Amino acid sequence: MIYFNCDYTEGCHPDILKRLTETNMEQTIGYGMDEHCRHAADLIQKACDAPDADVHFLVGGTQTNATVIDAALKPYQGILCAETGHINVHETGAVEACGHKCITFPTNDGKIEAKQIRDYAKEHFRNGGNEHMAQPKMVYISTPTELGTIYQKKELEDIYQVCREYGMYLFVDGARMGYGLVCKQNDLTLADIAANSDVFYIGGTKVGALFGEAVVITNPELKPDFRYNIKQHGGMLAKGRLLGIQFETLFENDLYFEIAKNAIRQAERITECLTALQVPFTVTPQTNQLFVVLSDEVCDRLSEKYVLEYQEKFDETHSVMRICTSWATRQEDVSQFMEDLKEVL
Amino acid sequence: MIYFNCDYTEGCHPDILKRLTETNMEQTIGYGMDEHCRHAADLIQKACDAPDADVHFLVGGTQTNATVIDAALKPYQGILCAETGHINVHETGAVEACGHKCITFPTNDGKIEAKQIRDYAKEHFRNGGNEHMAQPKMVYISTPTELGTIYQKKELEDIYQVCREYGMYLFVDGARMGYGLVCKQNDLTLADIAANSDVFYIGGTKVGALFGEAVVITNPELKPDFRYNIKQHGGMLAKGRLLGIQFETLFENDLYFEIAKNAIRQAERITECLTALQVPFTVTPQTNQLFVVLSDEVCDRLSEKYVLEYQEKFDETHSVMRICTSWATRQEDVSQFMEDLKEVL
Amino acid sequence: MIYFNCDYTEGCHPDILKRLTETNMEQTIGYGMDEHCRHAADLIQKACDAPDADVHFLVGGTQTNATVIDAALKPYQGILCAETGHINVHETGAVEACGHKCITFPTNDGKIEAKQIRDYAKEHFRNGGNEHMAQPKMVYISTPTELGTIYQKKELEDIYQVCREYGMYLFVDGARMGYGLVCKQNDLTLADIAANSDVFYIGGTKVGALFGEAVVITNPELKPDFRYNIKQHGGMLAKGRLLGIQFETLFENDLYFEIAKNAIRQAERITECLTALQVPFTVTPQTNQLFVVLSDEVCDRLSEKYVLEYQEKFDETHSVMRICTSWATRQEDVSQFMEDLKEVL
Amino acid sequence: MIYFNCDYTEGCHPDILKRLTETNMEQTIGYGMDEHCRHAADLIQKACDAPDADVHFLVGGTQTNATVIDAALKPYQGILCAETGHINVHETGAVEACGHKCITFPTNDGKIEAKQIRDYAKEHFRNGGNEHMAQPKMVYISTPTELGTIYQKKELEDIYQVCREYGMYLFVDGARMGYGLVCKQNDLTLADIAANSDVFYIGGTKVGALFGEAVVITNPELKPDFRYNIKQHGGMLAKGRLLGIQFETLFENDLYFEIAKNAIRQAERITECLTALQVPFTVTPQTNQLFVVLSDEVCDRLSEKYVLEYQEKFDETHSVMRICTSWATRQEDVSQFMEDLKEVL
């Protein structure tokens, strides 16, 4: 079986396991206060051109989102996001479990626009605020989005501008940030994201690490006591160095970006093939996630050799399926898949 | 100034104040364990033809909704409702503050349909459940809705049927229940509601009481330890008898229904007048809340003598306004208002 | 049956019911934005000599405590209190339900000391903080305490001093404040309390109102958006004027203090009687709550005519009982009780 | 520097890294549904003689405790524990953040007794329950405790007996379970623990794994939907196989127990040495954690070569220090430490 269902089917980039093995019997202090974490944080500050940023390492995405949002908001404040946002759909209500409402905007491509945010905030604060409604205080975007699309620099700047107008924080979920930053249409750098948000995270789990997400806090209001939040949310790894070592490896010699390119290359190959075969996409492909409409018969035949991810019914006889590549996707697997696609379709 | 903005501008029906005064120096035990509460509960059980129902008295609507929902759901479970539902819009995220997600359906008239609920539940439980999403476990409807519309008996039965199919609870918010039960199109009784839901509440605050909501629990699963929930939510009034006395008064001799009729009568008079004047309604009027489109100029002129409630902008020069009557609305105030409407429009 | 079990067995002072009746058909806007609330707030600001304080009216004690504490604390912060504190013992975990830990100190008389607080804070902040523990950020005291004792001015000042040293808020629960301020040993005024705390509340429920607590916020950090907190906690009464009218009545002509004196007078009479009868007190009486050790036989005999409140077993044959007076306690009932005590003991 | 401050200073047992490396490029499905997790669960069921138990793998202890407790309790229910319990002291209020009160008992050695639990439950349920207080519903014990002591079989059985009498769950925190099960005084097996509790966990983080805790649920009431709880708490690792592989390795050929013995052996050597040197212990040593009183001068001298963990001030010139061994502690480091102790003391 070959898995194209998601970007976390393998372990990690071999360099990481090598470093873990080399350092295994080192003794360090716990909870992320060790030298590896410090070094990894330095590398990330540099990569973001944000020498004053606080960098923290957490284990997974849901945990990271809940911790950041809970740390930033007061009990009566809510977070604005796309209706397709990961926090709104696929985290089992973890944000609500911390007490906060997700206030959602409709979207076709997983992205939201500055105008949607401005209109909402303007109405809420029309008379200084409306205490009968959750107060909008943070905006959540993901780039790449859950639908594989990316924000352009101008779009990000516009959103951040609205946030500042209305005293709201901007939080960027970068679970797949590596893939976004090396794709063709991208015009953003880590430094741009650091300069145009209050807090964001760089995903490791889906881009070459065993696990781990690096939170970068640039807004001084969000920095104090963040470690208390991590600990309370169960996100403070006893052997924090495991995270430090992974991000050290990924951010030395730009390994993070190098390995991300493979996902994009393989996704492009599949996209070309599917386009030639006139398979319709529900969202225009930009990164490593492809959303296509396939007949249930085709799905059945492909499922003998490949695992794709079911998204939803398209109509009576078709489904929307996700095809996903990653840092680990093998050139030869994609070649085989393309041949089989041609045969089946 | 004459207030048509909401249905809680006056104190309470004079009979209630009389009874409070008569009983004022009685000594009773606290927290709703007194004779008045017991008597009021009996009266309500009878009115609902539900001799085994548990009846509890709480102070206000937001508190009641949060208490009922929090008592019924496990941390990872969510509540389905209309996007216009009071819990979703106007309770400052109180349901989320208890940890639960509001999962919303689009609506034009404040109501949701059995089909919407079934489709959602069916998809969630497709493979036995999906632990990456909040689990749908309760359905919330209000009747009358926040837009003044009511559920017909058949609609309620259909929704309850879906709930039972998928092991979900049905919770009916009856903040304005009195007005719904005496309006023209109504074909429901309290007994119908008791028979077709798991828990509901009968609103006092908006229908003649100083304050107070009577929660009726018919599903035995939801009964145990409910008083712990009330207490924890700050809803257990030390002098619980104040609630007992009010509901005793409202449910002896059908006072609750009698006084509700006035709101409907006055709303009908205004509706006729507005219809004659060709003022457009955004929702077809059924109970005591009327939603109309008025030009901002008309609004300004009316605001010299009347308080209506702004809902939202309709277009550049018009707004949607709510006109609301109640048990206390005076015949002569409505007559005056109608005359002024004719003049201004 | 005569009730001495608590101080909320009757309705309210007759003047309040009179005012509610007089104003009953007035139309006002809702949610505490009306003239009565504004006037009541003015009267309280004056009584506290705190013209800049924010004053809010809530319905009951548990709700008030949860709202104030939840508004003040970040998710990882805890509240220091006596192990006998109402929030720790008798609110069904309402503070924890908002996510906050009660960090408790041992006490014999319901009071805590500045030294206990300082020692704890000093240890926590030894190295700038300890993210593995809840961070102490607020101190909760009640005066009178749950055991009927009061804080002296010097004690309050010392506690407030520690709070300021460690950046912690001081919150004073005044559910029975009236009784404390008119008792013999008292050397505090409302102005002293306002000057030596960040937020406190003046209890109405137990001192002559039907219900209601007036929150006074003096620390500007705690003022913004407090109404959002009230609403989310289900504490925003639709007919907020009911609270305004009650506190107007209580704070015009010092009614609040006048009626509190009766409770103290009657408690003193009972105390003298019990002392003469050599009944042991578990706490030295100061206000309207008396805690005595009675044999279970005596309890049984008294229970034919009187309701006292069981606290806990003292030994195999004795129990600790609470005897409580109030603004409404009748001189003749106390006389009868004293005679019966003499006979039974 | 040699670290004796805790039992998580190294990475993991080399066999684990070997297996992670061997399996690194395998493709598996995510979230703990893979073959490795299934196999590890089988091995644990067998080791516990609990073929019907549900086994789940989480990342760390605080997360595991919060998830289990939150899954088991209703909002108004609390958890009984020793005042020294990890959940009460060192998890930054994570249990309270889920809404639940820790109800604590005093202890000298980290253990609580059946009698303490029975007395508390008996008083709470005296009249069928007391809705003004958090309802006791779960008992939390850790073995080994935070003070290094262990429960004997009879003690565990007695506690579980009380739990069943009062309808409470027993939850055993086994963060260091391996060390407890191989120490001299131990008379418990994993099967005994499974038979005398409702849910427990077997700690990996402190006993040879990189990270990971295996939750074993034997009570059918606690099994449904547990994966929703894990996901909501941010504990569902995308690459769940990392946990499966680690526990496979630890539970094949009893590796878990074998490596735990080293910690006990080394702790015994240090204990003998300290006893000979007449260093006082604050708790009688049983497992791998030793709590001793050392003068601050001795601490200073030792700190040149060794890291011990400060616990608290003992008196003006002495401190309580923790000395901790682990699966990874080197024979020669202990020998050196003992020599230095003899010299310094």
Automatic annotation (TrEMBL), chains A, B, C, D:
Residues 18-295 form the Aromatic amino acid beta-eliminating lyase/threonine aldolase domain. GO terms for molecular function: lyase activity; transaminase activity. Keywords: Aminotransferase, Pyridoxal phosphate, Transferase. Its cofactor is pyridoxal 5'-phosphate. One of its GO terms (biological process) is amino acid metabolic process. Pfam families: Beta_elim_lyase (PF01212). InterPro entries: ArAA_b-elim_lyase/Thr_aldolase, PyrdxlP-dep_Trfase, PyrdxlP-dep_Trfase_major, PyrdxlP-dep_Trfase_small. Belongs to the threonine aldolase family. This is Aminotransferase class I/II-fold pyridoxal phosphate-dependent enzyme.
